[in-house]
Write a structure and sequence with these properties.
The complex is a heterodimer of chains A (174) and B (349). With 174 residues, chain A is mainly alpha-helical. Chain A is 74% helix and 0% strand. Chain A is built from 6 helices and no strands. Chain B has one domain. In chain B, helix 1 crosses helix 9. The chains are: A mainly alpha (174), B mainly alpha (349).
Chain lengths: 174, 349
């Protein structure tokens, strides 16, 4: 049993926050409140990223996901003026079952991978905080060397999605 | 005293100093400056009854807000209606943590760098907080259960996201030149040399285009005229805060001014050399104090600019605002990024 360190307390708090608000997002009936629960979840995730000494990821989590994508979600929900979710008529039983199966498989995969991962050596904390390096240049170098192909493929995917969205919305207006 | 305790005390002292100055000195005087400037520009006296030159007007304004009744409309989403002003206010107050307000000062045998938290994601932290602040506006609009408020909230989400893009890309060029996201490094870089031999290496010279985009976008980000569409009183009553009264309205008011101060400080830091002044290399306590004064003067100029523009320019149409953001500023910001990249690559800056 590890000693109750500050890190553990923050980890426990952030994880509880993430799990609780992720659950709240699913069971919430008002779409706007669901989006807000997801925002809190992202906050928790970014705290976890900071614990892993990755503040850049933490900031992006807030800036991109909470700050841009979810605001657009909110924008659409408000534009359509969705007050409450429509009553649940289970008219897609196949999709529902498939969704459940995929979720279970993914959960199993993640749990398996986590359990198999080697534990880091448990040393006594020295009490001096690890200095955080400027990780952004290193990250940029990796993106444009080792992961160049994946990076370019992802960019292309986003471009295709953007062009597709434009095409679809344009066709509706003509 | 143990080093950890000393560091904690130092941090607490810096937080107290920054919030003390911003909330205790800048904010009330800003209210006075705005109202007196409005008077000056509109050829009328402005508030001049409370105290000498009306200097205590801010106290009267704030007291009034606390005395009024706090009304929550029927059928409003009570929870969200209550927390929306807080969601706006808390990020607005936290932005100041990463802005370096001076070089460094030596007190009690400690070198104290004049920034609350010198984090390695400086600029991103500021952008992340501003983007959280939008939720305050959007939720205030939605939770009020009022058509005008909803329109204001919708507008703010569309507007802020559009301009954040151009603003972010303009800011990328700044840290491309400085080679770091740390705001202290950005200031040190600008203090480090000259541009073309005779100008200070302030980013506003090599990146004049980016600087212009950043400054104009900041007006849209802080919902100030000519881009104050989320409240646009001629069309939307009072926009997102139509249904707010008393101290909750006061919180919106305060957050708007805090955002304005933070935006001014960011402009001074990113593009105008922060606390540095060419030819001025004082050290020790006078050096620290002078650097704070230089930073305050630069920030003060941009605050003045915000007020000046508000009472001079009319409001744009909303489609003009959107066109400007997406079709003019975004391509120009990308152009600025490419040019800056080339300059950095060839070692010009």
């Amino acid at each position: 049993m590890p000693a109750l360190s500050g890190e553990l307390v923050v980890f426990g708090f952030a994880s509880l926050l993430v799990l609780a608000f992720a659950l709240l997002m699913v069971v919430q009936k008002t779409p706007v409140r669901s989006v807000l629960s997801l925002v809190v979840t992202f906050f928790g995730l970014s705290v976890l990223a900071i614990l892993l000494a990755a503040p850049f990821i933490a900031a992006l989590q807030i800036f991109v996901y909470a700050g841009a994508i979810l605001v657009l979600f909110l924008f659409v929900i408000m534009l359509l003026n969705l007050k409450e979710e429509a009553a649940d008529k289970d008219d897609r039983p196949v999709q529902r079952t498939l969704g459940l199966l995929v979720a279970l498989a993914l959960g199993g995969l993640l749990a398996g991978a986590t359990l198999r991962a080697p534990l880091p050596p448990r040393g006594t904390p020295t009490g001096t905080p690890i200095p955080m390096p400027d990780e952004i240049p290193a990250l940029g170098r990796l993106l444009f060397s080792d992961y160049l192909l994946a990076f370019e493929v992802l960019s292309l995917l986003l471009l295709v999605a953007a062009v597709g969205a434009l095409l679809l919305s344009k066709r509706r207006f003509e | 005293m143990s080093p950890a305790l000393a560091a904690a005390l130092e941090g607490a002292a810096k937080i107290a100093f920054v919030w003390g100055v911003v909330l205790g000195a800048v904010l009330p005087n800003l209210i006075w400056v705005e109202r007196r400037m409005a008077g000056l520009i509109q050829d009328r006296p402005g508030p001049n009854r409370v105290g000498p030159f009306g200097l205590f007007q801010a106290i009267a304004d704030i007291l009034k807000m606390f005395m009024k009744e706090d009304v929550v409309p029927m059928y409003a989403d009570r929870l969200l209606h209550t927390i929306a002003p807080l969601i706006l206010l808390v990020p607005a107050m936290s932005t100041f943590a990463v802005i370096p307000f001076g070089s460094s000062i030596r007190l009690f045998d400690r070198d104290i760098s004049l920034v609350v938290a010198d984090v390695n994601i400086g600029i991103l932290y500021v952008f992340a907080l501003t983007s959280i602040g939008i939720y305050g506006l959007v939720l205030a609009g939605w939770a009020s259960n009022n058509k005008f408020a909803l329109m204001g909230g919708l507008r703010s989400s569309a507007q802020v996201i559009s301009y954040e893009l151009a603003m972010g890309i303009a800011a990328i060029s700044v840290f491309l030149a400085a080679g770091s996201l740390r705001l202290t490094k950005v200031v040190e870089y600008q203090a480090s040399g000259t541009f073309l031999g005779f100008l200070p290496l302030w980013n506003c010279f090599p990146q004049a285009l980016g600087c212009m985009i950043f400054v104009v976008s900041a007006f849209a980000e802080t919902n100030r005229l000519p881009f104050d569409h989320p409240e646009a009183e001629a069309e939307l009553v009072a926009g997102y805060h139509t249904e707010y009264s008393a101290f909750r309205f006061g919180m919106f008011f305060m957050a708007e001014y805090l955002n304005l101060i933070a935006a001014s400080a960011m402009m001074a830091t990113l593009y105008f050399g922060g606390w540095s002044l060419p030819g001025l290399h004082l050290t020790g306590i006078p050096g620290g104090v002078v650097s704070i004064a230089v930073f305050a003067a630069k920030t003060g100029f941009f605050i003045f600019l915000f007020v000046w523009v508000r009472w001079t320019l009319p409001r744009f149409r909303f489609d003009q605002l959107m066109n400007l953001g997406w079709k003019v500023f975004l391509p120009l910001a990308l152009l600025n990024l490419i040019v800056t990249g080339a300059l950095v690559l060839w070692g010009v800056i």
